[in-house]
Specification:
The chain is elongated. The protein has 13 helices and 27 strands. It has three domains: 268 residues, HUPs (Rossmann fold); 127 residues, Beta Barrel (Ribosomal Protein L25, Chain P), CATH 2.40.240.10; 123 residues, Beta Barrel (Ribosomal Protein L25, Chain P), CATH 2.40.240. Helix 2 crosses helix 11, helix 7 crosses helix 8 and helix 11 packs across helix 12. The structure holds one RNA strand of 74 nucleotides.
RNA sequence: UGGGCGAUCGUUCAAUGGUAGGACAGUGCCCUUUGGAGGCACUUAUCCAGGUUCGAAUCCUGGUCGCCCAGCCA
C-alpha cells in the first residue's frame, strides 16, 4: 500500500484507542512476525459516502503508520444487491482519497474454501441443515428476553446433513426451503449465537461467479474467515458489529485458523446529512437529486464533484478521530477543513453572480487597460495575471444600496470604495439604461491605480468587478444543505425524511459574469471567486458554456450583521 | 424488560491516578486591497450518589441516561 497524501497538511493525529491497541499488539508481538494487515471491506451495493472515508483513512492510515498493508476486499456474499457498477465506483473513490490497496480481493474468491469449511463443521457435529421456514426460524429464535427453542432438525445425523447440504449446493432445492446453521446455543443472551444461519439458498446470478453457486454464505460465515485467509491482524469495523464478535471468534476457533482480531469504532454521523445507503438510494431512484454524484449528495462522488478535496477530508476525519461513543459531528467542522484547504491552494478569480452595471463617467470611452492581480494572496509563488478593466463594469447587485443600512460599508450614492486591484470610485447617481435596467454611475480617481490613493485616504470597502466588454457568461450552481433539519430523520408521526428535504438546495444562476481568464478553466479546476466562495468547474461544462459548482460560500460576516439587525 | 457498548465545554477529540487542554461553533477587540484569511481575548464541561487514595475525569460499588441486537441483509 502506498499513501499519496503523506505530505499533505500536518494533521495532528491525537492518540486513539485503535492506534494504541495496535501499538500494544506490536509491542507484545501478539501476531508474532506477521506484519500489521488491515482491510477495507465494502459491500458493492451502493456508492461510498463520507462515512466510509473515515473507515478508509483508519484502515489504510493505521496500517501505513505501522508499516503494514491494507487489502481492498469486496464483501459480495449477497448476489441480489451487488453490482459491478458499484465495484468500479468504490475503487475509484478509494484511489481518489489517495490510497492504493495491497491486494484486491472478493469474499466470492473464497466461496470454495468457505464451502469446505462448512463441510468441516458439519462433520464435527457443529452445523446442521434446517428445514424450518424463515418465519419458523424467527419464532424459534425467541426474543430479547426469552430464550429460543431448538429446531426439530437440530440433531440430524452428520451423514444426513452432509447429503442435504451437498444437494443444496447442487441446486435440488428452491430458495428458502433449507439453510445450513451453526449448532451453538439457542438460549444464548446474544441472539447472534442462537444457531446462526451459515448458508442460504439463492438461485441468483452473482456479479462475479455468475450461476456457479446457488448457495451463498452469510456475512458472519464469510467475513471473519476472509480476514483470516488474508492474515488480517486488525479487522476494524463499526460499533453495530460488536455483538457479532463472539460469533466471529467462534468460527475462527472451531476452524482453527488465523486469529484475526475484530475491533469496533463509532460510525461517522454529520448534522444535516443522511448517511444510510438505503435512503441515499431512494433519493437517487426517486429523482430528488440528479444522481449518485449530485454535488448535494454526501457520497464521495458527490462531494468530489462539489469540489471537496481528499486532503480536507483527511484533515477532517483525523480531527473527528475514532472512539466508541456515538455522536453527531457538526457539518461546519467538515466545511471548516475544506475552506482551510482551499484558502491555501485555490487560485483567485473575480466573478459577479448577480450583475449590476457600473459606468465610470470620467473614464475615457473606448479605453481599456490590464490591471495586475495576485493569483493567490496566500501564496506568492502562484504569481499574477492581468485582468482587463474598462469604462463599463459589472459589480454585484448586493454591493450597492441606494439607501444604505447602518454599518453598510459598500457602495452607495456619494460613497467612495475600492475596486479590487483597480481604482477608487465614488458613486454619483443611479440611472435607467436604454434597455430599462438599472445602472450605477460613478467617477474614478485616476491617481489610485492599483487600488491605493496617493494621499493616503482610506475606504471601508473593497469590491470585486468584471469588465462588461470582456466578461464571459457562465452558469453557476449554488448548493445549499439538502436537508432543513440537523437530523434529517427527525420527522413527525407517519412522516418521512423526504419531508425535511430543502426545496432550495439547488439554485441555478444562468448569467453570471466572469473575468475572461476563467474561459480556459477545465472540469475539476478549483477557484476562489473573491468575496463570494469556492467554486469548481462541473463536468457538464462545454467549450462554449462553463458551468461552475459552488463548493462552499466564504464566511460572510456582513450577512451575520444584517441578520442580527433584522431580529 | 435479556445481552453488549458507552457517558468530559453547544459539538468533537485529548488528558492513560498528579495544573481538565485543543479544534469547530459563538462573543468581543486588533489587523486587512476579499466584511475572506490572520492575531488576541472571552464564555462554557468531567451524568448522579457513595467509596478507595495524600490526590479521581481516570479505580470500585450502586443508580441514571443514550446507542446497538430478535434478516435466509451487510
Amino acid at each position: 500500500m502506498t499513501n499519496a497524501n503523506t505530505e499533505s497538511p500536518e494533521v495532528s493525529a491525537p492518540s486513539n484507542f485503535l492506534r494504541e491497541q495496535i501499538a500494544e499488539d506490536v509491542r507484545t508481538r501478539k501476531f508474532g512476525d506477521a506484519v500489521i494487515q488491515t482491510r477495507f471491506p465494502p459491500e458493492p451495493n451502493g456508492y461510498l459516502h463520507i462515512g466510509h472515508a473515515k473507515a478508509i483513512f483508519l484502515d489504510f492510515g493505521l496500517a501505513d503508520e505501522f508499516g503494514g498493508k491494507t487489502n481492498l476486499r469486496f464483501d459480495d456474499t449477497n448476489p441480489e444487491k451487488e453490482e459491478t457498477e458499484y465495484v468500479e465506483s468504490i475503487m475509484k473513490d478509494v484511489r481518489w482519497l489517495g490510497f492504493e490497496w495491497e491486494k484486491l480481493r472478493y469474499a466470492s474468491d473464497y466461496f470454495a474454501q468457505l464451502y469446505e469449511w462448512a463441510l468441516q463443521l458439519i462433520k464435527a457435529g457443529k452445523a446442521y441443515v434446517d428445514d424450518l421456514s424463515a418465519e419458523e426460524i424467527r419464532r424459534y429464535r425467541g426474543t430479547l428476553t426469552e430464550p429460543g427453542r431448538d429446531s426439530p432438525y437440530r440433531n440430524r445425523a452428520v451423514e444426513e446433513n452432509l447429503d442435504l447440504f451437498e444437494r443444496m449446493k447442487a441446486g435440488e432445492f428452491p430458495d428458502g426451503s433449507r439453510v445450513l446453521r451453526a449448532k451453538i446455543d439457542m438460549a444464548s443472551p446474544n441472539l447472534n449465537l442462537r444457531d446462526p444461519v451459515m448458508y442460504r439458498i439463492l438461485h441468483a446470478t452473482h456479479h462475479r461467479t455468475g450461476d456457479a453457486w446457488c448457495i451463498y454464505p452469510m456475512y458472519d460465515f464469510a467475513h471473519g474467515q476472509s480476514d483470516s485467509i488474508e492474515k488480517v491482524t486488525h479487522s476494524m469495523c463499526t460499533l453495530e458489529f460488536a455483538d457479532h464478535q463472539p460469533l466471529y471468534k467462534w468460527y475462527i476457533a472451531q476452524l482453527g485458523i488465523f486469529p484475526s482480531q475484530q475491533i469496533e469504532f463509532d460510525r461517522l454521523n454529520l448534522t444535516y446529512t443522511l448517511l444510510s445507503k438505503r435512503r441515499l438510494l431512494q433519493l437517487v431512484e426517486e429523482g430528488h437529486v440528479r444522481g449518485w454524484d449530485d454535488p448535494r449528495m454526501p457520497t464521495l462522488s458527490g462531494i468530489r464533484r462539489r469540489g471537496f478535496t481528499p486532503e480536507a477530508i483527511r484533515a477532517f476525519v483525523a480531527s473527528v478521530g475514532a472512539t466508541r461513543t456515538n455522536g453527531i459531528v457538526d457539518i461546519e467542522m467538515l466545511e471548516h477543513f475544506q475552506r482551510d484547504d482551499l484558502n491555501r491552494r485555490a487560485a483567485r478569480a473575480m466573478a459577479v453572480l448577480r450583475p449590476l452595471k457600473l459606468v465610470i463617467d470620467n473614464y475615457p470611452e473606448g479605453q481599456e487597460e490590464l490591471v495586475e492581480v495576485a493569483n493567490n494572496p496566500e501564496d506568492a509563488s502562484a504569481g499574477t495575471r492581468g485582468v482587463p478593466f474598462s469604462r463599463e463594469l459589472f459589480i454585484e447587485q448586493e454591493d450597492f444600496r441606494e439607501t444604505p443600512p447602518p454599518k453598510y460599508y459598500r457602495l452607495s450614492p456619494g460613497k467612495e470604495v475600492r475596486l479590487r486591484n483597480a481604482y477608487f470610485i465614488t458613486a454619483t447617481s443611479v440611472q435607467r439604461s436604454a434597455d430599462g435596467s438599472l445602472e450605477v454611475h460613478c467617477t474614478y480617481d485616476p491617481k489610485s491605480r492599483g487600488g491605493n490613493s496617493p494621499d493616503g485616504r482610506k475606504v471601508k470597502s473593497t469590491m470585486h468587478w468584471v469588465s462588461a466588454r470582456h466578461a464571459i457568461t457562465a452558469e453557476i450552481r449554488l448548493y445549499d444543505k439538502l436537508f432543513l433539519k440537523p437530523d434529517p430523520g427527525d420527522v413527525a408521526e407517519g412522516g418521512s425524511f423526504l419531508d425535511n428535504l430543502n426545496p432550495s438546495s439547488l439554485e441555478i444562476v444562468s448569467d453570471a459574469k466572469l473575468e475572461p481568464s476563467l474561459g480556459s478553466a477545465k472540469p475539476g479546476d478549483r477557484f476562489q471567486f473573491e468575496r463570494v466562495g469556492y467554486f469548481c468547474v462541473d463536468p457538464d461544462s462545454s467549450e462554449t458554456r462553463k458551468i461552475f459548482n459552488r463548493t462552499l460560500a466564504l464566511k460572510d460576516s456582513w450577512a451575520k450583521i444584517e441578520k442580527k439587525a433584522e431580529s
